[in-house]
Design brief:
Length: about 210
C-alpha cells in the first residue's frame, strides 16, 4: 500500500499545478520547480497515417484497426534499433522520443522506406501512408506517460496537419541541432510554414 510520501511523477506535477493556481502563489518559482523536476531535452517524432479519417469512412474502422496494428508491428522495431522509444500511441499516430536528432531522422527515413517496400505489394486500401513531423528541444517529460512542450506541439502540427504521405517535416530547432551534432548528411528544404511555435520549418529531401 502506498504511503503519503509515495507520489508518482504525474501526481507530483498536478500537485504543483494546483499550488500554482492558488491566489497569490509565486508562479515563477513554481514554474522553475516544475522545469527542475520534469524538464529534459529530447527530439520528438510525431507520426501519422495520411488520409486516415477519409479512408475509414470508405472501408470501415475494423479494416483500419488492422492497418494501425500492422504499422506498429513494422515501425516499432525500427524505433528500438535507432535508440528511440514510444511514449504513446493514439489512433493512427505515434509519439516517439530520441536523445539525438540525427537518430530521429535516420529512424524516420528507415520507417518511410519500410512502408514503401510494404506498400509495393499491397492494394491501395491496405497501404500504410506514413508521414512524420519532428521537433527538438526542452520538454516536460512526465515519466513514461506523456511529454509536453513547444516543440512537441510543432512536431504534432507538422506530422498531422502539414506532412503528406512519405514526407518528413522538421522544425528549425531540429535543423540547428543537426548542425551541432555534425552527424549524417541530411538535405533540408524550407517549407515557408509558420506554426507559431516554429517560424521556420523544413522538408527532408530523400
Amino acid at each position: 500500500m502506498k504511503d503519503a510520501f509515495h507520489v508518482g511523477s504525474a501526481a507530483r506535477l498536478w500537485q504543483l499545478i494546483a499550488e500554482r493556481a492558488e491566489r497569490g502563489s509565486d508562479t515563477a518559482a513554481i514554474d522553475q520547480r516544475i522545469w527542475d523536476l520534469f524538464g529534459e531535452d529530447w527530439t520528438i517524432v510525431f507520426t501519422d497515417l495520411a488520409g486516415f479519417s477519409r479512408r475509414v469512412e470508405e472501408f470501415g474502422i475494423i479494416h483500419f484497426l488492422q492497418i494501425i496494428h500492422e504499422h506498429k508491428r513494422l515501425l516499432l522495431p525500427l524505433v528500438l534499433e535507432h535508440d528511440g522509444f514510444l511514449v504513446k500511441a493514439e489512433g493512427d499516430s505515434l509519439l516517439l522520443l530520441f536523445r539525438k536528432a540525427h537518430r530521429a531522422l535516420e529512424c524516420s527515413i528507415a520507417m518511410m522506406k519500410v512502408c514503401e517496400r510494404e506498400n509495393a505489394r499491397r492494394r491501395p486500401e491496405e497501404q500504410i501512408l506514413l508521414c512524420a513531423g519532428i521537433g527538438c528541444g526542452p520538454v516536460l517529460r512526465i515519466g513514461d506517460e506523456d511529454v509536453w512542450g513547444r516543440e512537441v506541439n510543432a512536431a504534432s502540427k507538422l506530422g498531422e496537419d502539414h506532412a503528406k504521405a512519405g514526407e518528413v517535416l522538421v522544425t528549425d530547432a531540429v535543423r540547428a541541432r543537426l548542425a551541432e551534432e555534425g552527424v549524417g548528411n541530411f538535405e533540408l528544404e524550407p517549407l515557408g510554414t509558420d506554426l507559431g511555435s516554429s517560424a521556420k520549418n523544413f522538408r527532408l529531401k530523400r
